[in-house]
Structure prediction request, 354 residues.
Amino acid sequence: VQHKNFGRNQVFQTSAAYTPADEREVLQILDRHRGQRIRAIGRLHSWSEAVLGDGVLLDLRRLNDIRLQPDGDQFVATVGAGCQIKRLLKELDRDGATLHSLGLITEQTIAGAISTGTHGSGRHSMSHYVVGVRLARYDASTGRAFIEELSAGEQLQAARCSLGSLGIILSVKLRCRAQYNVQEHFTESRRLSNVLDAETPFPLQQFYLIPWRWSYFSQHRREDARPRSRLAKLYRLYWLGVMDYGMHLLLLSLKRVLRSRRLIRLAFRRIIPAFLIRNWKVTDRSSSMLVMKHEAFRHIEIELFVPRDQLEAALGFAQEVIKVAGGRESTLSAYNQRQIEELGMQDDLAGLHD
Prediction:
């Protein structure tokens, strides 16, 4: 059976594939294929090679039960490994609860999200809030599959982001909180220092370096005790039309139909910024405000963690690489060129011209 990930950059063939209905069936599959390579998948949104393998594949989408229990002024949810985040958010919202942290997309399964370090919304990664993991693995003495629950210590810390190496995750317990609202508005700044200074009043913010305009657009965000704005639905439609679909369709048309780098640069410099409404302050539920329709277009996303004191240099490097890739510069600065050569990535840099 052939499988492809979401970005279509990973293709792999497995010897057998299963979609078990319950934990008992998972154990039966493990015992049947003892000694073989077995891998569980979520929704295959990761771009990395971690999912590759020619052995046995388990798709846990049918393990998607959700149980929510009060825990003081918060909640603890027990969630089946194959439950998608969008379904989890919907079920939590019915009881006035939500997740502490969200990534940009909600298509992932909960096990896939924690196992790959999904993070976002200005807080810890999702795996930080995991307080228990139930997994299936082999007993070292008997060789038989059994179920183990991890709730403390280094084993739990490892299971929070294990890339599937500790066993097959069956369910996850994670701390949740009461549903809350977030206020958001856009600003533009030419200086990175201004963006970083805004983290104190807007701890949930995120920002973008806009290519060819070389300014920063910030989504200033913070929790807001006020009710949902009257224009919140209009804002969501605006965001859906302009950012989630409009920007991507524009760039795809310029790249694939008109094949014009000059027009792409113009789009980033003038057209896209013209549609971003500055200082429109809107309050909406966190589960709506902190996500995007990031899955609407196939893409490969690579994330790097950069220390704050090195961020300016890292963004400067990214700007140089984009200029070379876009044909506006023929080479990097001497310092960055030496860095590339030391890493042996000259061919990778040259390949960006293609």
Remarks:
- The chain has three domains: 1-178, 181-296, 308-351.
- The mean pLDDT is 92.
- The CA atoms of residues 181 and 285 lie 4 Å apart.
